[in-house]
Request: fold
Amino acid sequence: MDDKSQMLEKVSQAFPFLKDADAEIRSQVMTHAFIARIPKGKVIFLEGDDCRHLALILSGTIRVYKPAESGREITLYRLGKGESCILTASCIFSSGKFSAIAITEEDAEAVMVPAQIFRDWMNRYSLWRDFIFNLLSKRLSEIIATIEEVTFRRMDVRIAEYLLKFSQSHQGDIRTTHQDIAMELGTSREVVSRILKHFEYEHVITLGRGIITIQDIKSLSRIAEQTVA
Reply:
C-alpha cells in the first residue's frame, strides 16, 4: 500500500462517511489532501488569518477560543479525532478571515484539504456537503449552549460542573490552575479564586499549588445541579 492509499485508509477510519464514498471522491482525497503533523502548543490560527485549508483531525486535541480586550478568554469548542472546525469552514465559505484563535493542546495529526478543493467538493459531492452541514449544525448547537451558560448560569455552578467533568476524565487530583479555569470559562482568575476558596471553606475541596482535590463529591454535585441563575 503506497503513502496516499495509507492516508485514505487513515482518514476513512476517522471519518466513516468516506468509507461509503464512491471511487471518484476517494481518488480526489488521495490527489488533493495531505497529512500535517502539528506539535503541542502550536498556534494554528490567529484572529484575522486567512483560511487556506480545512483540517480533518485524525488525532490530538485542538482548542478554539475567543479572547477579549480585557485579556479574558472563553473556549468555544475543542476538536478531536473525527472532527473539523466550523469557523474554518465558514471562513472558506465567505472568503473571510478566521474569527478566533486555534491552538493544539496535544500533538495533533490532520488531513488538510485546500480551500479551493473544499469549495469544489461542496459544489460537486452531496456526501461532502452533508458532512459539512452536519458539522455546522452540531458545532452551532454547542456554541449556543456555551453562550447560554455564560449568560444565564452562575459561575459557582459552572466551576463545580467543570471540576466534576475534569475529575471524571483525569483520575486522582485535578492538576490545573485558577487561570486555566478562568480561561476555560470566560471569567477572571480573581473570580475563580474567590469561588474555589469558598468551596475549600465549605470543605468541598482542598487547594494546593496547581492541584485541586475534591473532598466532598456529593456536595460538589449538588452545587453543579443548581439551575437558578
The chain has a mean pLDDT of 88.
